[in-house]
Design a protein that fits this description.
homodimer; alpha/beta; nine-stranded mixed beta sheet
């Protein structure tokens, strides 16, 4: 991709650094894709570590950077934040905007294989291959120092991406993650649409299954979860994932937080700890 | 107002305290009004100081609490935040939603006197009289410890309210304020609609004029302003206000910030300092 095809459409100073929003033609998704970066003040002087954030259902490239309060801590630690959109937009696929849990805002970080979705919904390839190449080519980053985190559907995405690319990242954390999508109602519906009926394929995007088979990923995993999260019991299934991690002896730190819900008021409340968790591994 | 008429419609834990959104029938505005509070953890144990925030054009009761990142610091200092909506909504006034700088989201903190707007647009009375009475009656607050701040149109509102009620507040600050509304295009249009042609009445809502006449208000005033704010020169006129303050010997601290714009990326970047400024006066 040339510099010319990376369109900066919004730029704002924030905590001494810069929030920048870009649009670029995605070859993986055969559509324009949006992403936001936060360029910390330290990036003026030289390359800095990268921390990717994958967002949840309904989110665009904006929600995280507007609501999570991460820039304050990214500026403190010197981390370049990258927050991609959760799907391509305006692809022309019939009904793409009709259901908050399917299509626009609901890519679920999978590579679709069904006729309806396969052309544009290649979000796994987008976040694991194409976006990192764009970031490494165009921004002052240290590509060997990369962390990953995410929230809800993006927590699912972060766990799956890390488990399938066990040597790629130096740090990993999730908030309110969908841990067992193959048993989670919203995700089941999306997996059927995007992946068809092949349950073996579904399992390649199921963090709990991947953790059961895991032999390579060994990053300390911080998981924060609100106890009053309305989706906890039926949709997120973090206790099943915890049991899997314990059975495997995986270094999981699950923190349950009384009173907290699922939205960005929770995410923002946890942000300082998450950025410290990543900085500890990325900024050494 | 009875407890029954104060409707809690949203509640989320945030930084150890609670974000709560309320709707209540406003007698000043003859319409339901929305406001948001942040109840810090310290309010569990006893009454705490109050810090009012007045928002800018287009904002609802939500923008500040979602985007400014104030809860982190309110929890640190033990301040109860109050952020009212910027106007009544759905009043039935023709065209109320048609223009972002008039009607819904654009109350300008004045008491309208024109036939079209007078019944519902009594935002000055609402924020100076009715809302404080609601807060003091229903929440664990110290009504003698009250601070006030605001952004843009809400910076105008905060300055005007403080200058006209010089003994009411213990602390005052503003961000990107409209300082001379009688010479600011958006405000002129709104003042004509709400207040008619009586320029003497306009001046009662003009911070620069009120500062020229001021003999009572002597609170240290922190003003933060982005130098790359697109509205700075034509709409905000902070330099004229600074000159007025200097001529009066008023304790103004104006900080100009290179690179920063007008929106919540700027507001959030300044929030720690503003809450510390208020806490210094309110938490002694």
């Amino acid at each position: 991709m040339t510099n010319e095809s990376l369109e900066l459409f919004s730029k704002d100073k924030s905590f001494g650094g810069w929030v920048e929003m870009y649009r670029h033609p995605s070859s993986a998704c055969q559509a324009p894709m949006n992403f936001t970066i936060y360029r910390p003040p330290q990036a003026e002087k030289g390359p800095v570590p990268i921390l990717y954030y994958l967002s949840g259902l309904t989110c665009t490239h904006e929600n995280f950077i507007l609501k999570a309060g991460a820039q304050q801590f990214a500026a403190e630690h010197g981390l370049l934040l990258v927050a991609p959109d959760t799907s391509p937009r305006n692809t022309g696929i019939p009904g793409e905007d009709d259901d908050f849990k399917l299509g626009s805002g609901a890519g679920f970080y999978v590579n679709a294989i069904t006729e309806k979705w396969a052309k544009h919904y290649q979000m796994y390839d987008y976040v694991t291959q194409e976006l990192p190449a764009v970031i490494e080519a165009h921004f002052p980053v240290q590509p060997e120092r990369v962390g990953l985190f995410g929230h809800s559907m993006g927590g699912h995405g972060a766990l799956v991406v890390a488990l399938r690319n066990p040597k790629r990242f130096r740090s990993l954390s999730v908030l309110s993650p969908i841990c067992v999508p193959t048993e989670s109602p919203f995700a089941i519906e999306a997996f059927q649409e995007y992946l068809g009926e092949d349950r073996e394929l579904w399992l390649q995007y199921d963090a709990n299954h991947l953790m059961q088979k895991n032999t390579e990923l060994d990053l300390p995993l911080l998981v924060d979860q609100g106890e009053d999260d309305e989706y906890l019991k039926e949709y997120l299934l973090v206790k099943a994932f915890k049991a899997t991690c314990e059975a495997k002896g995986y270094p999981l730190q699950l923190r349950m937080h009384p009173g907290y819900g699922h939205n960005y008021f929770f995410v923002a409340s946890m942000m300082q700890d998450h950025l410290a968790h990543h900085a500890k591994a990325l900024c050494v």
